[in-house]
TrEMBL record:
Species assigned in the record: Naegleria gruberi
GO CC term (a single one): cytoplasm
Name assigned to this protein: Predicted protein
Domain Protein kinase: 1-239
Signal peptide start and end residues: none
Pfam families to which the protein is assigned, alphabetical: Pkinase
GO molecular function: ATP binding; protein serine/threonine kinase activity
């Protein structure tokens, strides 16, 4: 089920969304299996088609239960496609604001391939420019950025941090750590902690791959890469 809290402001923009790594707008807008409208709270609830493979959160947990780490190739596949989706939204002046593993629906999962589409625009908001600061108290705490916790303000770089948290979960099988809290306590120790957790789960992840994740988890949002930089690094090292 998808919640559109800003449906009035975003409706025209969302109808224009068309990207292979974002849930299709005929699955997002119309036709729908069911629509429930709550006029008093300006909310619309959309019931989406069934995705047999579930979401990425479930896929990560299933791999954990099988003691089957994701290959670096699959991690980079996911990162590239997720970054393309979020970059596309940003080019249309939309910030997702709720990037997490359960909001990526899995369309394909084999031993060496992982395809997902981004979903759930319940907290999405429109911005006038990509550097716009968002007054934002809406988030999923586990994936929240340090600046969001501290000031309830963020830019699209908050989504970059959340995507880094999703990659950490995928690579470490750590389902509980709130990285913003670890980073707030000691940023240097936090980087060592992240590396250790990832390599404890799968020692074959390259330094370049782990360093890319760490760059997305920088405490200062200005030091985090933008989506184009992430995609460029991924293509240079893995294509």
């Amino acid at each position: 089920m998808v919640r559109f809290y800003n449906v009035i402001e975003l409706e025209s923009q969302i109808k224009e969304i068309s990207h292979q790594n974002i849930i299709k707008n005929d699955e997002l807008i119309v036709p729908l299996l069911a629509i429930e409208i709550d006029i008093t709270e300006s909310k619309i609830y959309l019931v989406m088609p069934y995705f047999a493979l579930g979401d990425l959160s479930g896929t990560i947990y299933n791999n954990f239960m099988k003691n089957q780490p994701f290959s670096e190739r699959m991690v980079i596949q996911f990162l590239t496609k997720a970054s393309l989706a979020l970059s596309y939204l940003l080019s249309n002046n939309i910030v997702h604001r709720d990037v997490k593993s359960s909001n990526f629906l899995v369309t394909k999962h084999t031993h060496d391939e992982l395809d997902c589409v981004l979903s759930d625009f319940g907290f999405a908001t429109s911005v006038s420019n990509i550097q716009m600061v968002i007054d934002d108290s809406s988030c999923t705490m586990k994936y929240a950025s340090p600046e969001l916790i501290e000031t309830e303000m963020s830019t699209f770089k908050g989504d970059v941090f959340s995507l880094g948290c999703t990659l950490f979960e995928m690579m470490s099988f750590d389902f509980n750590t709130m990285l913003w809290k670890v980073i707030e306590q000691d940023e240097i120790k936090a980087k060592l902690f992240i590396k250790e957790r990832i390599h404890k789960n799968f020692s074959e992840y390259s330094t370049a791959c782990v360093d890319l994740v760490l760059s997305m988890l920088e405490k200062d949002p200005n030091n985090r890469p933008d989506y184009e930089s992430i995609i460029k690094i991924a293509k240079e090292h893995y294509c």
